[in-house]
Amino acid sequence: MKDDESLNGMYSIESNCKYCGWEIINLNLTVEQIKVIQNLVSQNRKLHAVKKMMDDFGINHVDSKGIVSHLNKDFGICHRCSFDKLKHEYIECPKCKSFNYNLKPDI
Ligand SMILES: [Zn+2]
Ligand SMILES: [Zn+2]
To answer: How far is the CA of 88 from the centre of ligand 2 (A)?
Structure first.
């Protein structure tokens, strides 16, 4: 008997954003790196966030753009339609079907 199953973090994501079809990417970043990106996004500096991910974290341009455009600024609030009751991380907005990372502000 072999047990090859391993748990890769809490979330297994094998789906797409139902709004735009983007294939959801699991964030393989440290807490510190995520904080930096979240900060930039919350200051409406998304382009800067994309550049940071490419230059400092080695993520390609397409992926960086996709990730940043699915990061919501404030926990619980959809980045697209501003629905404000997103309850947990890695969630699909029940209103507009957009995927939100919805990362908790601090750890
Ligand atoms: Zn999307
Ligand atoms: Zn929404």
So the answer is: 14
State whether 33 and 46 are in the same domain: yes
pTM above 0.85, yes or no: no
Q: Quick one: pLDDT at residue 28?
A: 87
Report the domain count for the chain. 2
- Rounded CA-CA distance 102/72 in Å is 6
Structural domain that includes position 42? 28-69
Task: Tell me how far the alpha carbon of residue 72 lies from the centroid of ligand 1, in angstroms.
Answer: 11
Phi, psi of 22 (to 5 degrees): -65, 135
Q: Looking at the CA of 92, which ligand is closest?
A: 2
